[in-house]
From TrEMBL:
Pfam families: ADH_N (PF08240), ADH_zinc_N (PF00107). Belongs to the zinc-containing alcohol dehydrogenase family. Quinone oxidoreductase subfamily. It comes from Arabidopsis suecica. It is found in: Mitochondrion. This is Enoyl-[acyl-carrier-protein] reductase, mitochondrial. InterPro entries: ADH-like_C, ADH-like_N, ER, Mito_Enoyl-ACP_Reductase. The keyword Lipid metabolism applies. One of its GO terms (molecular function) is enoyl-[acyl-carrier-protein] reductase (NADPH) activity. The lineage of its organism: Eukaryota, Viridiplantae, Streptophyta, Embryophyta, Tracheophyta. Keywords: Fatty acid biosynthesis, Fatty acid metabolism, Lipid biosynthesis, Lipid metabolism, Mitochondrion, NADP, Oxidoreductase, Transit peptide. One of its GO terms (cellular component) is mitochondrion. It is an enzyme of class 1 (oxidoreductase).
Length: 324
């Protein structure tokens, strides 16, 4: 049963934690509010920490103190939990040395705090399902999400075109221009796709072999319509909470494949070294201005405001990043 999100009107002081010989104490700098964080609180996420628990799954911090047997870190180093680890919505976090990954301080704080859950999802989906070459194309719904924005930019770096679907709502024209500025080749609202043959809208782009779905419902059906014969749609979210409906024709005559991606499952496959190498790659892109997305910094004592924005209570908002 989903539980209502409580109103966090007060901050809780936790008792001190001993820093053991292999531990690193990290003073948190920033941590985002991701949809999966909210799902954990609601009790609807497949993996949840034992309660009582501190929220947050990724973030960046500065090493404050180290245990007597820790050699890889020094006070002042910037670190992130890699793979991500629960409990980043607090001022100090004490965990074993193996949890932390040292990063370059030259990367902007807001990107260091948010680089894992969304950008890494975009990178893995582009690389794990279909062999894509320069000149190919991909199609996605939810293009204004951070994953969607990262797909556009990472694909462009590889010479891959993107066909991007957005919802009809206030500000859609502005959103279209923002995605174009990131490198989107085509951006269509759902109402523009009320035509018999959506592929007729593709003038100079090849039919995509790969599609990404984070919405479900009709938005997923539109992605499927774009795919070429033998194409694959990867689902990594379900924002509309509506099921994916696939026509018999799509399976029989187009031989489409439906796959799913869950970053936490991928990370659980003993891929710590690979994960950290990709994180460093993505951080390098962010540092060099080649990977961009909008965030909003929220002081820790204004967490309730950030949470309301993350829940969509105040309309569409940038990714909320708590600062400590």
């Amino acid at each position: 049963m989903a539980l209502p999100i409580p109103s966090p009107d007060i901050l809780v002081n936790l008792p001190p934690v001993e820093v053991k010989e292999n531990d690193v104490c990290v003073k948190m700098i920033a941590a985002p509010i991701n949809p999966s964080d909210i799902n954990r609180i609601e009790g609807v996420y497949p993996v949840r920490p034992p309660v009582p628990a501190v929220g947050g799954y990724e973030g960046v911090g500065e090493v404050y103190a180290v245990g007597s047997k820790v050699n890889g870190f020094s006070p002042g180093d910037w670190v992130i939990p890699s793979p991500p680890s629960s409990g980043t919505w607090q001022t100090y976090v004490v965990k074993e040395e193996s949890v932390w990954h040292k990063i370059d301080k030259a990367c902007p704080m807001e990107y260091a705090a948010t680089i894992t859950v969304n950008p890494l999802t975009a990178l893995r989906m582009l690389e794990d399902f279909v062999v894509l070459n320069s000149g190919d194309s991909v199609v996605q719904n939810g293009a204004t999400s951070i994953v969607g924005q990262c797909v556009i930019q990472l694909a462009r770096l590889r010479g891959i075109s993107t066909i991007n679907l957005i919802r009809d709502r206030a500000g859609s024209d502005e959103a279209r221009e923002q995605l174009k500025a990131l490198g989107a080749d085509e951006v269509f609202s759902e109402s523009q796709l009320n035509v018999k043959n959506v592929k007729s809208l593709l003038v100079n782009l090849p039919e995509p072999a790969l599609g990404f779905n984070c919405v479900g419902g009709n938005a997923a059906s539109l992605v499927l319509k774009y795919l070429r014969e033998g194409g694959t749609m990867v689902t990594y979210g379900g924002m509309s909470k509506k099921p994916i409906t696939v026509s018999t024709t799509s399976f029989i005559f187009k031989d489409l494949a439906l796959r799913g991606f869950w970053l936490q499952s991928w990370l659980s496959m003993g891929k710590v070294k690979e994960c950290r190498e990709m994180i460093d790659y993505l951080l390098g892109l962010a540092r060099d201005g080649k990977l961009k997305y909008e965030t909003e910094l929220v002081p820790f004592d204004e967490f309730p405001v950030g949470l309301d924005k993350a829940l969509g209570k105040l309309g569409r908002q940038p990714k909320q990043v708590i600062t400590f």
